[in-house]
Amino acid sequence: MYDTDKRKLLSALSHGAIFFSTTLVSVGIPIAILLVSDDPVVKENAKESINFHFNVWFYGAILGALFFIFGWLVLPLLLLGPLAGVGYLLHWGLTIWALIGVFSNPDIPFRYPYIFRVV
Asked: Confidence class of residue 5 from pLDDT cuts 50, 70 and 90?
C-alpha cells in the first residue's frame, strides 16, 4: 500500500513542473521523481509529464521556426500570433487539468490526450 498524500504530492510536482517549461530544468523534476520513486502511479505520472514536456517543446520549436521564417510578413504573423495564444492556453489548461486529475483520483495515472509518447 502506498501513501496517498505522498502520491498526490509527487504526481502534482511531476505535472506542475511544466509551469517552468521555459527552463530546461523543469523536465529534471519529473525525471528525478521517476528515478527515486518506487510508486508505480507516481512513475507513470512522471513519464507522462516528461512526454508532455517533449511535446510542448516540439510544438514550440515548430511555432518558433514559423515565426522566424514568416515573421517579417504581416499576414502569417496575424495567423501565428493567435495560434501561439491557443497553444499557450492548451499548455496551461492541460497542465491544470492534470493537476485536478491527480488530486481528485490519485490512484490512476493521468494521461494527456493527443500527445506523442516517447518515454
From this structure: very high
